[in-house]
Amino acid sequence: MAPVITNSTRITLVSVTNDTLNDLIDLHSRVFPIAYGQKFYDEVLKAGELAKMGSILIEHIIETLRKQSDPIITSIYLHVQTVNEAAIRFYTRNGFRIQSVVPDYYKLIENRDAYILARPIFHIYESDERRQQPQQYEHIF
Prior knowledge:
By secondary structure, the chain is of the alpha+beta class. It is built from four helices and five strands, in the order ββαααβαββ. It has helices spanning 21-31, 38-47, 53-67, 85-93, and strands at residues 4-5, 11-12, 75-81, 97-102, 114-120.
């Protein structure tokens, strides 16, 4: 059973079970350039409900950063291989946007170019006083 996402803030997590394990293996092979053996997936089965954990963690980090007072962090940045389409989809679904390309970023793997992605912590329309920080902290998308 796939995770159910509605218009509310609730997300239903689905356990990784023997019935859903092949879906996880397929997803993992599309997202990560490294193949893992059966032992890895056996451990995942033991771990339980991990679906949507990445998105949940990103939102938790952002909510934590929004509560910080000094200095104000306005954006989160990350890098991803330009050929890693699944990771790019994941991050764009989670509010990140491609900012630039860094040629030859990765030295030890093929397809060395990286995208730099960024996600603002505050929405442009927020009137929160925390957005009134000095210009050097601003990053405009």
